[in-house]
Design a protein that fits this description.
By secondary structure, the chain is of the alpha/beta class. The protein contains 30 helices and 23 strands.
Length: 735
């Protein structure tokens, strides 16, 4: 049996171990959060595979590979071509859809180009059906399917007020209404000519009067310009020109003109997107939409769900010559349906997908690639899957393995772990208490062993509610929630879990609950990133950095150098490294590999200027403190109660292994979520608050789930209500 061999793995908290990992097997790396799983799988194995790929590129690209450091391991032998599937999203391109990400839409374009029928005498090609090409896209919306327009509801924000006193959002403190191009007095002249004045509330105006304000009038001409003649006469050194008289054009008219010329940040505050009036949101031009197969054009198929399209392709007798395209379409869609994504529409934009849905799309792309001799590294591939979907995913992994590939997964799911060939268990704890190989061998041998391991304990016994350190309380108060002919009853002052919903259903229920007045406060904690740049991190998000900067600014040496608090910020000029702008890294964009972070050569990743790094607290510079884990920082700041409070909350939520300055771009959705929860728990909530938490057990080992439930029980014991959307069976067993 061939093995991947690693000698002296030292990345992050790994303790310099040697390890041999079997190839062409299904291997799981397990352990509690922070035990070193990702360091081994991604920071050593996947990173080295990426670096070796860079070395195969032309000389121009290879110049950057020298800066792309080798992982901290003495030697790595027998490493196959490696593809890592992490949890990072595809980005925010509005042109990316489920169909384009999965290649389903590309296959549909090929199908229509070869076998479509049209009443127009036009040549059919794949580009004709592309909303990203000038040949096929709608001329008006340029293939976006949406048109930007000024949203009246964003302009009229205080309908109970008069126009003079601020009914309209663009009204400045001086009284001038931005974008109106006339003074308030001139606008009043227009209104009076139309039979009303600007001292009526917006709600008192009739529709025709409102249209005057928004779309203009041709009753009288008024002087243009924001300054009155009286104020203009006070100007000195400027030759006063007479203002031109013109008809008032109307606020919305002027704002739309500006939007079409210059999409600046100020005007975009008042913009909303609506379906394109020319293509009705179909993105394509008339020639493309006239082409049909079995009575349907490509836009109609693009608006179907994956399951609906699967059934349509199966049910219709397409041209016999289309058999190969049909087979490929069905194969791809069956994979995606197996992963629980059959409900997604082909044309649904990527920006509307959850992290779990995006992750599963990436997994489906790899499963359908039909490659061999590849090492696949998957980061928690079972996120968001129910029991049956997990079983189908595992069957696909076995198919990959049988094609001569190697599969390495980082996962906490017990069902998945029980199905692998080989297990690498790490720990026993997190951070400095982890980084060791507890077991490396066949699953059966692991289950029969007696080693001290949280994973082994979970597999043998499962963590149950008896291990929980809080007694659950029961209340008789309930809140009824009716949604899509189903009734949900929320128990007040307890932990509630809703399972089995699509992301769309979940969003709808969340919106309904956030508008219910049964609670004094609503707190929604999802898994969106806490920041999108390397300068965002746990310390900045939770407020720790504020306290740390306060501490540094009060040091004697800081006062002697007249270093203010801002000097210790890597987000502002003064103390930060200006080469990397305080990020510590320079980002390089490569088409196939995405973005690669290179260490800043000016500050060597420290983010600050040298004079700032010379200031020390307890012997550590501020950069060295940001490199501390939460657990280590608790010891360092033992005499700082405000800092300790935040750090202890993070540790209770299983984040003791995280570094204070760890870039938010490297955090998983679950880690980001627990950091958000830390921020919320800092404040002393009164009772009767509703916490809505989106899949809180994602990325958590059963040991960490137990600690999380303890935290939820603390919240509920204070007469607050917790609602979790989740699929995890261990989490459900606690409530």
């Amino acid at each position: 049996m061939p093995f991947l061999k690693i000698k002296r793995a030292n990345e992050n908290n790994l303790n310099g171990f040697d390890i041999e990992i079997p190839l062409q097997k299904l291997v799981a790396i397990t352990g509690i959060s922070g035990s070193g799983k990702s360091s081994l799988a991604f920071d050593i194995i996947a990173k080295e595979g990426q670096r070796r790929y860079l070395e195969t590129l032309p000389s121009f690209a290879r110049q950057f590979s020298g800066k792309y450091s080798r992982p901290l391991a003495d030697k790595i032998d027998n490493l196959p071509v490696t593809i890592a599937v992490g949890q990072k999203t595809f980005g925010n391109n509005p042109r990316s859809t489920v169909g384009t990400l999965t290649d389903i839409y590309d296959l549909l374009r090929l199908l229509f180009a070869r076998f479509g029928l049209s009443t127009h005498n036009i040549p059919l090609s794949r580009t004709l059906f592309s909303f990203n090409s000038k040949v096929g896209q709608c001329e008006q919306c340029k293939g976006i399917g949406k048109e930007e327009t000024i949203d009246i509801q964003k302009v009229v924000i205080h309908p109970e007020k008069t126009i003079r006193n601020g009914a309209l959002a663009p009204t400045l403190p001086s009284g001038y209404i931005m974008y109106s191009q006339v003074t308030m007095d001139s606008l009043n002249l227009v209104c009076k000519a139309e039979g009303f004045d600007i001292d009526k509330t917006w709600n008192e105006l009739n529709e025709s009067q409102k249209k005057v304000i928004l779309y203009g009038s041709k009753k009288i001409k008024v002087p243009f310009g924001k300054h009155s003649l009286e104020s203009r006469l006070k100007w000195t050194g400027i030759k006063i020109k007479p203002r031109e008289n013109e008809y008032y054009k109307g606020l919305i008219t002027i704002m739309n003109d500006i939007l079409n010329r210059d999409r600046n940040a100020n005007i975009l505050k008042y913009v909303t997107a609506i379906d394109c009036q020319k293509c009705n949101g179909d993105k394509l031009n008339e020639a493309a939409l006239k082409v049909k197969i079995e009575g349907r054009n490509i836009a109609e198929l693009n608006n179907l769900s994956i399951l609906q399209l699967f059934n349509w392709v199966n049910e219709h007798k397409l041209n016999p010559d289309a058999a190969e395209i049909k087979e490929e379409l069905l194969y791809k869609m069956e994979l995606i349906i197996d992963l629980g994504l059959g409900h997604l529409k082909i044309g649904q934009t990527a920006t509307n997908l959850s992290q779990s849905e995006l992750q599963r799309i990436k997994i489906s792309n790899q499963l359908s690639s039909k490659l061999s001799n590849i090492l696949y590294v998957f980061d928690e591939p079972t996120i968001g899957l129910n029991k049956h979907q997990k079983e189908r995913l595992l069957n696909h992994f076995r198919r990959l393995k049988n094609n001569g590939n190697s599969i390495l997964i980082v996962d906490h799911d017990l069902t998945t772990i029980k199905a692998v060939d080989w297990i690498i268990d790490m720990g026993i704890g997190a951070g400095t208490d982890g980084g060791n190989i507890l077991f490396n061998g066949r699953l059966k041998e692991f289950l029969n062993s007696s080693i001290e391991s949280y994973t082994l304990k979970a597999l043998k016994e499962n963590f149950n509610e008896n291990e929980n350190d809080n007694k659950k309380q029961k209340h008789n108060k309930k809140v009824a929630l009716n949604f899509e002919n189903k009734e949900y009853k929320l128990n007040i002052g307890e932990i509630n879990i809703i399972t089995g919903l699509t992301s769309k259903e979940q969003k709808s229920i969340t919106t309904i609950l956030l508008n219910k007045n049964n609670f004094q406060k609503h707190i929604y904690i999802d898994q969106t990133p806490i920041g999108r740049t390397p300068r965002s991190n746990p310390a900045t998000y939770t407020g720790l950095s504020e306290l740390i900067r306060d501490l540094f600014s009060q040091l004697t040496e800081s006062k002697q150098n007249k270093f203010s608090k801002s000097k210790f910020s890597f987000n502002t000029k003064g103390g930060r490294c200006e080469t990397c702008l305080g990020a510590g890294k320079i980002q390089l964009g490569l088409h196939y590999l995405g973005n690669i972070d290179l260490l800043c050569e000016s500050c060597n990743g420290d983010r600050f200027k040298k004079e700032v790094l010379n200031i020390k607290y307890q012997g550590y510079s501020i950069a060295e403190i940001y490199n501390h884990s939460v657990t280590d920082a608790i010891t360092l700041f033992k005499d700082q109660p405000k800092i300790i409070h935040i750090l202890q909350l993070m540790k209770k939520l299983g984040l003791g292994y995280l570094k204070l300055g760890q870039s938010s771009t490297t955090l998983s959705g679950g880690e980001a979520q627990r950091i958000k929860l830390t921020k919320e728990l800092q404040s002393k909530h009164s009772s009767n608050a509703l916490f809505i938490i989106d899949h809180p057990t994602i990325g958590l080992h059963p040991y960490d789930i137990n600690n999380l439930i303890n935290t939820f029980n603390h919240i509920a014991l204070k007469e607050n209500t917790v609602l979790c959307f989740d699929q995890n069976e261990i989490g459900r067993a606690h409530v």
